[in-house]
Design brief:
alpha/beta; Rossmann fold; six-stranded parallel beta sheet; 22 helices; 19 strands; globular; binds magnesium ion
Amino acid sequence: MAIENPSKIDGNALVAMCLSRAGVDRMFGVVGIPVTSLANKAVALGVRFIAFHNEQSAGYAASAYGYLTRRPGVLLTVSGPGCVHGLAGLSNAAANAWPMVMISGSSDQSFTGRGDFQELDQIAAAKPFAKFSAKATDITKIPKSVFSVIDSAASGRPGGTYLDLPSDVLHQTIDESEAEQLIAEALSYRKNQLIQNPRVSNSTTIQKAVELLKTSQRPLIVFGKGAAYSRAENELTKLIESTGIPFLPTPMGKGLLPDSHELAATAARSLAIGKCDVALVVGARLNWLLHFGEPPKWSKEVKFILVDISEEEIELRKPCLGIVGDAKEVVGMLHKEIKDDPFCLGKTHPWVEALRGKSNENLANMEAQLAKEVVPFNFLTPMKIIRDAILGLGSPAPILVSEGANTMDLGRAVLVQMEPRTRLDAGTWGTMGVGLGYCIAAAVASPDRLVVAVEGDSGFGFSAMEVETLVRYQLPVVVIVFNNGGVYGGDRRNPEEISGPYKDDPAPTSFVPGAAYHILLEAFGGKGYLAATPDELKSALAEAFSARKPTVINVVIDPFAGAESGRMQHKN
Ligand code: ADP
Ligand code: MG
């Protein structure tokens, strides 16, 4: 019998070494053939591997981890179906412009095309969602492939990249000294290749932007999750407070400046976008979420100044003025340019007053709604109780995860974001099923923060098995399920829609009424609460927030409260 040469390492070990050298310290995934040893070797090198039940949730976690930490989140999957499940995460990273690397094992290259175990052309499958892909066709190709997928994910506009590792390559061996040599070569190649983020073209564009803002009667500053990713909060605060220009965050931009800021136009959104004449849009796309920047939501005359890391994005929207560059850097330059010749709208400026007046009016109306204690619960009564409990926590604010139709829409209006990057929701794609993956990513990325998920029951169901993952790693995550018995809630069909041989089946939107989601977590040793009244909810929240242990609070909502499809009714 041949004695294994101790100085030899296999492909699995080499991938783990490269990941660790590249600074990867967390990985999300599901192990199995042929990548189990890769995960074990990575753990032995100090990488924390968070093992999930399903690659879809692990992929969503990796994408959010990339957003929260600004370093690519890494997903590890098995071949074929594992890769296909993981594509959900990769596509979500692409849609949201978040850095993520998906690494999948693949079948043996010598059997390609002959129906090998879990055989799939994974490079082709990943192509629509990956900004760059690499396949290590031989063990010597591993170091360069690993570094290039990691670097590409975070460069320029962030996004997903894909690395394919055939099982034969993972089992190939080389001398450890040769491996070190290959890593050294790949690292020096990497240093030369590191793609610089685009530099802001010239100071003339900055001057033009400032001129537009200065001469505007009704300026507005809009910022989104690209600005949050860039960590532009200090620069935005300086720019906004020195000029007195009102601001409007997108859902995940919320918190860069606190929602309670006196220049926040969030509660006067329609007026702000309908009447502004110059909008400085930072790290947010003029896509469906911002009504494409077009009438009737925006005025016909509005001039857009668009700041984005992606030149393509600026080409696509053809704003009045486009500035390609990093949000933090560009906003800093705008502020500096203004400082030399300052201007400030001031509190009594008619535009500022109009927005503040409308905001106050809308906020007062909402508070009046929230003040009514409705039992059985509508959406607003428990949302107010949750808002107050979260605000009671102070700083560091918890990271809020939110998905669902009514639950997410109303949550966005009622729940308050006071700190940057403390909101994760269905995002650009309106992705349902992100909930538990995002919770786990947030807990792993920000161990000092509590994580609170406010989810519809249908959103929760997509990833509910991952509550076991919460318990296994003892993550401080409190999942609050708004349980109204289905998608949108109770059976809302018109009588004439209910016919045919299966008319007695539950409606396609209905789940088992009274589902005991809180017991689900208890099966694994976590803590569950059922809350049907304000007192029950308050005491469950108080206990859960102080325990900081995996918790599910099952909130019983009237199945007929809320609107079908939330605010997207016109599309359904
Ligand atoms: P939101 O959903 O908040 O409106 P989007 O995802 O639509 O945000 O837009 C985010 C934009 O931010 C993307 O177009 C992306 O290219 C851009 N972006 C990403 N990173 C940066 C950065 N560092 N600086 C500026 N823009 C960025
Ligand atoms: Mg529901």
